[in-house]
Structure formats: C-alpha cells, structure tokens
Amino acid sequence: MFDAALAAADPKVCLPPFLVPLAKAPCAGRTVVIGAGKAAAAMAAATEAVWAEHAPDAPLEGLVVTRYGHGCPTDRIEVVEAAHPVPDAAGREAAGRILELVRGLGPEDRVVALISGGGSALLALPAEGVTLEDKQDVNRALLRSGASIHEMNAVRKHLSAIKGGRLAAAAAPARVHAYLISDVPGDDPDVIASGPTVPDTTTLSDARAVLAKYGIEPPAAVAKALSDPAFETPKAGDKLFGRVETVMVARPQASLEAAAEVARAAGATPVILGDAIEGEAREVAMVMAGIAAQVARHGQPAEAPAVLLSGGETTVTVRGSGRGGRNAEFLAALAVAVEKRCGDVADRIAAVAGDTDGIDGTEDNAGALFLPGDLARARATGVDLTARLANNDGYGAFEALGRLLVTGPTLTNVNDFRAVLVLP
Predict the structure, then answer these.
(1) Which residues of 57-150 form beta strands (DSSP E)?
(2) How many angstroms separate the Cα of 98 from the Cα of each of 33, 58, 114, 414?
(3) Within 13 Å and on the Cβ side, how many CA atoms surround 405?
(4) How far is 389 from 384, CA to CA, in rounded Å?
(5) At 180, phi and psi to the nearest 5?
(6) Which tens digit of pLDDT belongs to each residue from 274-313?
(7) Which residues are CB-contacts of 266 (< 8 A; sequence separation ≥ 6)?
C-alpha cells in the first residue's frame, strides 16, 4: 500500500499529462523553468523528458532547488541542493538566482513553476532587513513548538522576498504555469511551499498571532518586519495574478485511493478516514487505535480484514531528547495505545506510518512498521515503548525492534501516509 501511494505521486507519472499540451503550444519567447521542493528535481527531469519527446527543438532553461540528497540528473534545467527543514546559505543563493531568472521577462515569455512540499524552507530568501540567521532561529522555534504547517507558513511568507506570491510578482508580465504536488492538508495552493506563485490568504497580523500563540520571542528584525505594512504579501484580486495558471498534479487523496485498490485486491476493506488529518501525533494515534479496536470487536465501520487509511500532517511538541519524526511518534503512540486499550485484539492490529518523501523529520527513515507480536517482542527485549514515547524517541524504539521503514529519498512528497490493518 505504501509503494502504491508513492507510485501515484511519482512526477514522471503524474506530471506529463499536464505538461504535454504546454510543450506542444508555440511560445514566441523563452520558456524558463523554476521550482522548489523535495520533488523539484524529479519534476524537472520529467519536464525535460516531455520537451524531448514533444518539443525537441524548443528552447528550455531554468533552475530548481531541492533538499540535499533529493537531486537527479538533468540536462537543461540546473538542480541545486539545499537544507531542509532549517534553511541554509545554499537555499538563499538558489532562491536569489531563481528570482533573477524571472525578472525582466516579457509578455511573450513563459515561466514553468514546479512546486512541491519542502519548497518553503528551500526558497530561503529573507525579506529586506531580515537575515538568514533570523529566519533559521524562527524556523527552529516553530518546528519544536507543535505549530501546524499552515501556521508556520503564515510566518515564513511574511519574512520572505520570494514566497507568498512574490515570485509571481517578479515574473510579471510573463505568463506563469504553476504545477503543484500537494503535501498539505486541504491542498491549499498558498500553503504548498508557502505559495510563491499564488495570492496569500494570510496577513501580517496572522503571522504575529502564530508567534504569540506558541510563546516564540522573535529576533528584533523579525518583530520589526512583522509590524511593517510594507512586508504585507500580494492578495487575491491583484492584477499581477491575471496571467498565472495553477494546476494540482498530485494530491494525498489520490495516493490514498491507490493504496485502497491494493487493499481490495488483497481481500481487505479499505476505509479512508481522511487525507487532511492534523493534530498531535500521539493524539491522532489514540483515535486510530480506538477505531481499530471497534473494527476488531464489533465490525464497525467495516468487518475485518479492514484497513484504516489516512493522510495529512500531524505535529509533535518536542519535550524529550530522543530521535524521531512525526511518523515514528505516531506509531510509537499507536503501539502504546493498542497495548493499553485493545487488550484481547492487540495482536490483530498492524500498521505503517511514513512520510512519502522518504524522510521522517530529519532522520534517515521514512517512518516505521508495527506488526503483530511486536508488543511481546518489545517486552522480551526490554524496549519500553511508553518511556520511549515520553522521550520523543520513536526512532530508537523501532530501530531496536528492527521495524524502521527506510526508503531513501523518494523524489516526491504528498505528505504522510498511514495504514492501520485489522486482521480477522
């Protein structure tokens, strides 16, 4: 099921149907490809392949930035790698070069923007008066606070010279064709990579409210910027967006549906609970454990064998010193909840949780697996799952059990994938 979810979001599969008509359409000027995100390199390679087949003599140039280790070979579109989730100087330089590439284009030119999750940290071009170090400090605080992706990006957009619609503003009057792979709950274009090519629905006031909500004291330059009306982002209705076309080429829902087909083929009933589930990872896990127990004991909302499928992006409020991203945290919490609440049916429950980009937080795993018998194995080997969870050490727990899910970079990103299997 996890493999099927990844395949549905593979850029070389989901992007070409939208690009072929564009490649075949005549363009009097330049075609400049820019992009950012964990899937940016794979999207650039897919774009080159489409042009090679359908417009081999047409000019194509550009630059995309992706996370370290997520690059792939390209011929005409340059790929730069930078840091994620905390931005670095390589991301700042790449974002500046991307902005310069689109400045000065005319109405006969077109920009192909390849946007995917992770682009917000990778397009690290601070607004005037804000330093990269300021942005790094705020990013780290937000990542540890438990803030949602919507909240984090509301702040990021207002501290950037390129996000929150500002890339589209720089490209005007050229026509912009933006192709997005969604990694956010609700598939909001202005949240994916902090919406560099679309109107911003958040305000400076929203950004200040997020920092206040989580008790984050920003650097002086950040506080000053978030109080300056000049730092407000372009909004809907601005004429600069009149020549911007936005297309969603991959969504978490499509990946869940692909996984559901695998479940049906294996004789299990898929139950898609939602593609936009948010909240603390351990609290979402408790809910999932409760639903799994209901399936096992009462055949509701489906008779076993059944699979509970969900996507979205949980959060983790870091209190311990252990290792692990939100998927390892979710699965450790699920294991603890299954042991405490599911009792007689605990050994009928299995699960996988993983980030579809192949990286759970900042670790080297995509997530982890939880299989029948693992609770007994944990007791026998001295792996205290409750203590590990309290220390935010989901990685350590599943490493000890030999259940880490390691894929390496997948070159796509449609957020988290969770499947809880209830056996008959």
Answers:
(1) 61-67, 77-82, 110-116
(2) 9, 21, 12, 24
(3) 27
(4) 9
(5) -115, 140
(6) 999 999 999 999 999 999 999 999 999 999 999 999 999 9
(7) none
